[in-house]
Amino acid sequence: MTESQGLHHALDEAPLSRTQLLGILLCLLLNALDGFDVLAISFASPGIAAEWGIDRAALGLVLSMELIGMAVGSVVLGAYADRAGRRPAILSCLVLMAIGMLAATFAGDVETLSAFRLVTGLGIGGMLACTNAMVAELANARTRSIAVGLMASGYPVGAIVGGSVAATLLAGGEWRHVFLFGAGMTALFLPIAWWLMPESIRYLIQRQPAGALDRVNSLLSRMGRPPLDALPPVGESSSKLPLAQLFAAPLARTTILLTIAYFCHIMTFYFILKWLPKIVVDMGYPASQAAGVLVWANVGGLLGAVLLSVLSWRVPLRSLLVVALIAATAMVTLFGQGAHDLAGLAWIAGIAGFCTNAGVVGMYALIAQSFPTHARGSGTGFVIGVGRGGAALGPILAGILFSLNLQLQGVAAAMAIGSLIASLALLGLKRA
């Protein structure tokens, strides 16, 4: 065992310190912020459609713009996190998110709003890649899967809390206040993250930037561990190009299959999250009640995330994921059957959210544990970034299907196929 491997092994076996727990908690809160910022456009979409008179196809494009930005941000800022560090990348993402959310309040047409949502998406996508890598490296071996899963559960928490606030803001009839609230919360987290977010020791050991030894020893002291006299030699793998190493042995098959699985399932996931408020409004309910139904979908998502994270302690993660994805296929199809009243629709949306978000959370945990430290930021960023193409495609494809006069039943059945394809890709990953 090399010196570097020995230190990583010691960190994996040691109990979590207060510094590590605080860092994981902060990543959970940042992911909650992501959850609200992503869904802000969903909460606001009925008001936008009413004010500007846009049809469903055009609305589907607006709903997807930050998802396109997220795809680019995950790849670019995920790779940046492997070069410059997790902490500076996270702070950069917060700046982009705050700028995009605030600028959206000044939008006067679809094109301008779409551009501002693209900027917001760059920050959100990078944040997801960075926090996923950060939590995987702050946790020890025993808690890694559940820590990443609980971090990912912050997404529906942000949607639930933020959605409840959004419902109140929308009751006043002004959709721009949703973005103003998001901008304020994002700006609030900038000084908090600057003060409390630690850098990853594993990153500092692997990349060894200027002053790495002092920074590592400072973190080790905060964790109650003895300092190092010198850093271990840098591994050869750290000199490879960040993206090229993902398509070389032994990572190529893992990268390809995880990307396919994430792309297909996230397409199904965002069909529910992005279109649910507009579907409810088209049934004749006000926008504030539509936001409430989306909140229930995220309550189900939170429960699904927590349950899968807890079960991952005892049950193999891939097996859990395959079951969750098959259940998601069934429930999204059932969602398309509709309901006789708002309460029934909220129940169906909650169960669909339970299954689809359990799949997303499990996917994040699987991605985090599938890549080594030197490739974790770029690997996570690539899989999530390219996979976010599915997130962007989901609302657009659904909008096109709706514009062809296909009913909700047919659209939901078509969009549910993504989760089924994802389960098949993970079966291939298991054989690998």
Question: Helix/strand-derived class?
Answer: mainly alpha
Q: Name the overall outline.
A: globular
CATH superfamily: MFS general substrate transporter like domains
Low-confidence stretches: 236-240
Helical residues, percent? over 70%
Chain-averaged pLDDT: 83
The end-to-end span amounts to 26 Å
CATH architecture: Up-down Bundle
Q: Using DSSP, what is the number of strands?
A: 0
Count of helical stretches:
16
Number of folding domains? 1
Q: What is the CATH third-level topology name? A: Growth Hormone, Chain: A
Secondary-structure element string: HHHHHHHHHHHHHHHH
Question: Main β-sheet: number of strands, strand sense, barrel status?
Answer: none
Quick one: CATH class?
Mainly Alpha
Give me the Rg, rounded. Answer: 21 Å
Briefly, what is this?
This protein has 432 residues and is mainly α. It has 16 helices and no strands.
Overview of this structure, please?
With 432 residues, this protein is mainly α. It has one domain (14-227, 242-431): MFS general substrate transporter like domains (Growth Hormone, Chain: A), CATH 1.20.1250. Helix content is 81%, strand content 0%. It has helices at residues 3-13, 18-52, 56-84, 86-104, 110-138, 144-152, 154-171, 176-196, 201-207, 212-222, 252-282, 287-311, 317-335, 342-370, 373-403, 408-431. Helix 2 (18-52) packs antiparallel against helix 5 (110-138) and helix 2 packs parallel to helix 7. The longest helix has 35 residues, at 18-52. Residues 236-240 have low confidence and may be disordered.
